[in-house]
Amino acid sequence: MCGIVGYAGTAAGPQAQDVVLEGLRRLEYRGYDSAGVALQTDGRLVTAKKAGKLARLVEFLDEDPLPPSVTGIGHTRWATHGAPTDANAHPHLGGDGTVAVIHNGIIENFASLKAGLLTDGVGFASQTDTEVAAHLLAKAYAETGDLPAAMCAVARSLEGAFTLLAVHADVPGTVVAARRNSPLVVGLGDGANYLGSDVAAFIGHTREAIEMGQDQVVTITASSVSITDFDGVPADGVHFHVDWDAAAAEKGGFPSFMAKEINEQPQAVADTLRGRVDPSGRLVLDELHIDETVLRSIDKIVIIACGTASYAGQVARYAIEHWCRIPCEVELAHEFRYRDPVVNEKTLVVAVSQSGETMDTIMAVRHAREQGARVVAVCNTYGSTIPRESDAALYTHAGPEIAVASTKAFLAQITACYLLGLYLAQLRGNKFADEISEIMGQLQAMPEKIQKVLDGIGQVRAMARWMADTRSVLFLGRHVGYPVAMEGALKLKEIAYIHAEGFAAGELKHGPIALIEPGQPVFVIVPSPRNRDVLHSKVVSNIQEINARGARTIVIAEEGDEDVVPYADDVIWIPPTPTLLAPLVTVVPLQVFACELATAKGLDVDQPRNLAKSVTVE
Ligand code: F6R
After folding, report:
1. Residue pair 3/21 in contact by the 8 Å Cβ criterion
2. CA-to-CA distance for 202 and 199, rounded, in angstroms?
3. Packing angle between helix 408-428 and helix 307-324, nearest 10 degrees?
4. To test the ligand 1 pocket, which listed residue (378, 406, 490) has its Cβ within 8 A of the most ligand atoms?
5. Per-residue pLDDT tens for 358-390?
6. Judgement on whether residues 522 and 573 belong to the same structural domain of the protein
7. Is there a domain that residue 439 lies in?
8. Which residue in 2, 306, 324, 379 is the catalytic one?
9. pTM value?
10. Tell me, what CATH number does 354's domain have?
11. Which atom of ligand 1 is nearest to the CA of 310?
């Protein structure tokens, strides 16, 4: 939540306003309640900030540009303390306008700090927690005359989660920052350096970056980067190269990032599988730095995640238990953290997160490790907090996901969790090498099948357009189709603002069937008929039950499944796929349906109301 950008360059390079606004444009997915910039120019600071999306600030600056500058900071906000107004937009000023501060996170002890400042006669211009940090920094600088030392002192006095960036009128060419529990990366340029909530902030300028550690302060100028801990002791960051470029963070001709990311799913799955099997067909997960004897001794797996990532975990549970014969639970990270869960050194916790910055999941990871559990992060963002704080990380290689609604990360998360499950099965001897190699072959065939679904998606687009006025949609599935049903409902809620619910099809008769009335649209995910197992026939019976009550049934079924045809108003055909792998194709029409329906309603598909991409507050 909240995107932050910092830039220190020279007169030979671009203007700070341009660099900072470009960074904010790429980070706007993190929050879009307001935006603002502060630039350093001729021994003073100038600022501009506006409530609403970044476009409002850009429009304002087009008419009234700030003076030339090569040092600045910028912020795009997801409101926590104080309504999304101009006054509450960042930057916030301290010391009569000599210092400007932007912030991502929540300062938990801001009330007591504010009370102290008010007693000292400091006046406040906003309702935010951030403004406290601005006044404290101005005060600390007045006492020390050393901006990094002043930032260290402020950081030591704060509790909670924060990334703070600041510029001071009297310290030209310098941006100083501190981080605790909120993300911050440094971009290493040629004659310029950058700061950002993530690498998207500066990807247009450099792909070389430093991952900041917990409780560190960094000071950048055009020619230097210096990192210390909160006591001013020099510290190191971890250097890394970003393996995607600026083009990956653009829409590339698609109407929205979500549409683009749905279309990138074959690639996301292929890239997540790439390089993880040796020529003999054996799975190699070199990055899994957990002792093999430990992995052999685990007696329980707990997958923790939120939202879409938790549904990926729910899908993975079916496969992991089936392949490894280890009990596997899936729990929402925020529920896990606060219910005194039974985990110990024989528990493997798998933390699934696209951003790696979801605070609920971070807190759950910390709790699990305190109890002695080993934690593997399944994550899409290199260098983010969750992989850094875990015992090992298995990266999904989906590329940057910018639309707030998660799509390609979901498929990549399922794929990575499947790799983990197969690896454990291989290590523990639950599966023979030829069985593993057969499943890997099936997984490797998935990108082509996903592409086939995408190629035939016209029918879903048309359906979404004529259903634009629908007020409620239900989704039913069994087994791995159940989490897919919940994911389909979540997509529709979050971007089309339509009431939607996903049910386990077997639960229908225990209550939800009362919702069925003539014309009620119901999507049903049907398992493969090839095994003619009970799963398929039970779901066909469920379709009959709702069809008999007048529901409009939209059935997602495998090509050639004639059993569903008599009871379906529409059938979306998917290519034959093994049951456990089917979610990688059955979810695709549901994602497209939500995207098209939101578009038909004229909504902002990429930036739905009240949401932000990384939920960095609990
Ligand atoms: C839904 C969505 C959210 C995220 C959830 C976890 O489309 O994007 O439900 O899946 O907030 O986020 P990560 O995966 O970043 O931990």
Report:
1. no
2. 6
3. 20
4. 406
5. 999 999 999 999 999 999 999 999 888 999 999
6. yes
7. yes
8. 2
9. 0.88
10. 3.40.50.10490
11. 10
